[in-house]
Design goal:
About 35% of the residues lie in helices and about 15% in strands. The protein is built from 9 helices and 9 strands. The chain is of the alpha+beta class and about 300 residues long. The chain has 3 domains: about 70 residues, no CATH class; about 80 residues, no CATH class; about 80 residues, no CATH class. It is elongated, with a radius of gyration of 35 Å. A 4-stranded antiparallel beta sheet has the order 3-6-7-8, with no helix packed on it. A 3-stranded mixed beta sheet has the order 4-5-9, with no helix packed on it. The chain has a two-stranded antiparallel sheet with strand order 1-2.
Length: about 300
Amino acid sequence: MAATLTHACFYEPELNATYQDFATHYGTAILPTRVAKPRDKAKAEGGVLIIEREVLAPLRDHRFTSLAQLNAAITERLEIVNTRPFQLLAGSRRSVFEALERPALRPLPPERYEFAEWRTAKVHIDYHIAVERHFYSVPHALLKATVRVRLTATMVEILHRGTRVAAHRRRVGPSSHGRYTTDPAHRPKSHQAHLEWTPARLIRWGGEIGPAVAAVVAHVLEHKPHPEQGYRSCLGLLALAKRYTPARLEAACARARVTGTRTYRSVKSILIAGLDKHPIEEPLTLQLPAQHAHVRGAAYYRTPEVPITHS
């Protein structure tokens, strides 16, 4: 687990989100102590010292051949420590536990805590967030908002201002990279709240650079299950004009159209390699003449009829 505190402050220390999530699940309150002040947690420090002296030290020279043997030896030593009478007080640790602590205990939650990581993400114009190179949808009303993401081994939960707004099955592995998980309920109805970003507007922006750019933008939008899933790629494509100039982007898109690889990555690789500066060679088409010595036709391979003779 990461550090207990993400921000140390005397008055308002900020707990690590995963640690706080763990504590909340079990109904436990975390009270951070001051830095380099062991007396703030004297009971905890004293308990560690007792375990080192009374449990670990006596077992340090023993050899165990299984985890069960080790656990049995530790249990035996703990029983000795807990039942030993106090030197200055009445009773023992066991009797104090039974009299004061056991009645105050609450039952554990029905489910064990599932380890979760917490992250922060910003909702893109396609109303998706990026998590480990995969894109998950959120309600379109949260466009450009900053959200918190809770990741478990199987789920992706998205929260906004403490309220869960979306949940998806987690997708992991290289096969999930660049792919989308979209809840249809998150899509804007008739694009009412999405009019700022439409396929027509993106194509028009591409057309202001050149017809080849507009054609690549249109191709990207047409080959996505939902047009919004192509917005991110289109914006990245248009942004290449600022880095490589509009003229070079138009030339790279023209080359991409000829080669049939009309994607953001393909256009970017063309620009990086400088292939847009070279003339485009039209693909060769091989066409055989209708009449040729080596073109025999079907009749040549037809089996001739052999006359039948009677002896």
